[in-house]
Amino acid sequence: MEKNLIKYDLKKMFNILIIFYILSIILGGIARIFAIFDNITFFNILKIIFASLNYAVWGNIIVHTFVQIIMRFNKNFYGDESYLTHTLPVTKIQLLISKYISSLIVVLSSILVLLLSVFIMFYSKENMVNLKAMLDASVSGFNISATTFVILIAITLFTQICAIISMSFAGVVIGKRFNIKKNIKSLIFIFAFYISSIILTLIFAILMAMCMGNVGMLFSNEISSSLLIGLLILAIVCYVLYAIIFFFITKWQFEKGVNVD
Amino acid sequence: MTNLLEFKNVCKNFGEKQILKNINLEIKPNKIIGVIGQNGSGKTSMFKLINDLFTISSGEILFLGKPISVESKKQISYLPERTYFDKNTTVLEALKIFETFYEDFDRQKAERLLKDLDLDINSSMEKMSKGMKEKVQLVLVMSRHAKLYILDEPLGGVDPATRDYILDTILKNFEDDSTLLISTHMIADIERILDEVIIIDKGEILLHENADELRQRENKSIDEYFRGLVYGKKSY
Questions:
Q1: What pTM was estimated for this model as a whole?
Q2: A256 vs B84: CB contact, 8 Å cut-off?
Q3: CB contact under 8 A, B53 and A256
Q4: Looking at chain B from residue 11 to 40, which residues have their Cβ under 8 Å from any Cβ of chain A?
Q5: Do residues B13 and B118 lie in contact, with contact meaning Cβ atoms separated by under 8 Å?
Q6: pLDDT tens-digit readout, B98-127
Q7: B84 to A260: CB separation less than 8 angstroms, yes or no
Q8: Which string of b and e fits B57-95 if b means at least 16 CB within 10 Å?
Q9: Which of A221, B41, B73, B100 could form a disulfide with B37 if both were Cys (CB 3.0 to 4.6 A apart)?
Q10: Which domains does chain B have, with CATH numbers?
Q11: Hey, where are the domains in chain A?
Q12: CA of B16: which chain A residue's CA is closest?
């Protein structure tokens, strides 16, 4: 049943996102073609125009991915569509898990499309060498390879996205338990959860730096490699924990039942 | 006879506001029951509670002796007063959704009914009027082999000419051993088909009685009786 729920969700979410995906690939391709002739002023201007348009589309993909995920959750569980959702012969946990899985698929798809668009627009041996040199330079002071650093950053960002989605779902479900101004309250809860998570992560970071005996480094430009790796791992652990905790909060509240307007 | 559906001291509150007050109700199988009440009387709230769209404040609702669950959802076919399909959904996609999720869905029956009602299977909901969308949902709901059909204002958005056709569709297509709970403002239109009537006002059940017995006892139509009871008017 989850498979069908996921399929239905993805279809709805990709309905809009697919336009941006295609647009981003096409604009990236066009900008790349014009880049071949960028020694000619006219083509260089065109390259800049199409590349700028593509940056705007990237922004749209990022914003729309989050908006679609939260709107879909809200519409499917609390909007008109919920009259179908909650009467389907599936459990609340099946509904919830399908929503988490479809959201993750959408996030991963958007990341892949963004990477593909970047690749189309910028890939060349020369650019790769430059990028590697830049990364090597930025991690030169630390006892860490550029690849490990990129992987850690990517995992941190991904777990943060998962945590934000989990917090958003919890915010929506808790906000909807009120009798009035449900949407505003949902937004307030999402914002409160996000701010609290940042503050909590910062407190953990300070505590960790204190334990390692180098708090001062946190607020300076000279940070040790062990502290940098420690901070990234701490962030990953925190975001994974937030994602799990907020999943259980959402599950607990959602299983109490809904009151659909 | 075992109750198909049972409300035991069911209350529904929103903060201080009491929507349903201590509802006790027993619904037997194989009946057509009209749920009658003014706007905001609690009809839809009652239906939402049965369908897990509202949480109960106190009391319990039992379907075939068990609380509302996935098993009950498999046997209850509900038509809400709203259209729940996304505007981009086509009738064909809606059919597929019902076919996928409801084991008791009869696709052939649905296609036949859609054809009878002149509804194009390839049309999207966006291009349909409210009445047409309601007809599609009614067809989908009535094409299930359910134990309990709950229809909330099924005649609301349709023209008078179609009303009788829809009522006939409902009557012809609901299973013999099933029960039909139907709410409407258009009492005169449905009273001919009712076995029982439930009158609800301000969240309380004022009456639950056999329709024929009520008509005989009061010597007036259910419509007249309802107006007299709720509005305090004697004759029309």
A1: 0.88
A2: no
A3: no
A4: 14-15
A5: no
A6: 999 999 999 999 999 888 888 888 888 888
A7: no
A8: eebebbbeeeebeeebbbbbbbbbbbbbbbeebbbebbb
A9: B41
A10: 5-231 (3.40.50.300)
A11: 1-123, 131-261
A12: A179
